[in-house]
Amino acid sequence: MLRSNRDKQQNYELVSIEDLVPDDHMLRKIDKYIDFSFIDEKVRHLYSQDNGRPAIDPLVLFKMIFLGYFYGIRSERQLEREIQTNLAYRWFLGLGLTDRVPDHTTISWNRRTRFKDTTVFQDIFDEIVLQAISHRMVGGRVLISDSTHLKANANKHKYTKEQVKQNTRDYLEELNAAVETDRKAQGKKPLKPREEVNEDKEVKVSKTDPDSGYMVREGKPEGFFYLDHRTVDVKYNLITDVFVTAGNVHDSVPYLSRLDRQRERFGFEVEAVALDSGYLTTPICKGLQDRKIFGVIAHRRFHPTQGLFHKWEFKYDAEKDVYVCPQEQELPYRTTDRHGYRHYASAPNICAECPMLRQCTRSKNHRKLITRHIWEDSKEQVRLNRLSKSGKRLYRKRKETIERSFADAKQLHGFRYCRLRGLRNVTEQALMTAAVQNMKKIAFHLDRKAKEA
């Protein structure tokens, strides 16, 4: 006998929303193990205390934002519809079955006005990291960093070309001082100061989202992108730092400052770091050595001129401070340029009679020139770290930590594309995505730990 359930839709039932949400639902674990009480303290000063209409509870507002990132709901309008029909979402927000869901425009209005030019999203991310530290899920001893591209909400064919200043390096003053010290030790005259240190370069600027950067990288898509520079702790793969830049900013530019920020903000005593080949620069190697951090950085492949000797075939003699060519001839020191490179040059009269000349240099004056950075020793130490047994073991952790973190963000939390435009809005997206990833890890770990106890 066939029965229709259509009539039951009109029946009245006495139910409790508490009984309708499964005990093992993710949001129950989040609500149980994540303390959201700090949100009210972080935003209280942004609300008027004695006039105006009653505001929506900030905790409800931010929980709505978290739901959008938990489940990869890109549209705030769609988020409002999902909350209207999803019992678990209503339970998480503290709404009853008949309570009105806050309008989606409330989120966008608060972003554009109340939370504009504040650090509220960074503060929320930091608080979640501090909770992870309190649960002993973050060691702060071994960190792994990398960046991933995030497609900007902009047409790559709509742009203008502008002349801009290249990024100012935060190590420039230290480098200049090191260059002058080295020249003085070698008996060279001080270099004349230059009024303009940075050079102009032509870049494509998007008409739709000027904050984004036009990215051209081998093996990567071409167009306007942002870069999410992320750091994870190797202990439980918790994200400890998020920093967003335009897509045409080199990975190495913000690294040391973000590393110092974590050490100061969370009190990390960093002992080792693992980085991709994009971070293999002498300033980063020197910075890690100065901070007494064991650095492991992937090898970067260079493409020397075909038919000529490779640079590694010229041996450096540290005692004599000379390079020795494959024919056992010495290349003595000549000068140090303002970029921090020492120049070692051969004697043209000797090279002119050398049988290996065509394999050594193609210069018209028969002189071979080798450069060596004044911080090259730091770079060589990083290379030795990479080749060591502990270095190889640490670098293998990248694929199961930072790369997995990015994959999880893109696959489950809608992090392949920018939801909004502008560096500030994209930074919010990156911080909130990382925050909900951390919340999930904390909640699931503590729940599993409680069941095993």
From TrEMBL:
Composition bias, Basic and acidic residues: 192-210
Region (Disordered): 182-212
A family per Pfam: DDE_Tnp_1_6
Residue span, Transposase InsH N-terminal domain: 16-112
Coiled-coil residue windows: none
Domain Transposase DDE span(s) in chain numbering: 324-442
PANTHER family to which the protein is assigned, alphabetical: TRANSPOSASE, TRANSPOSASE DDE DOMAIN-CONTAINING PROTEIN
Protein name: IS1182 family transposase
UniProt organism field: Paenibacillus nanensis
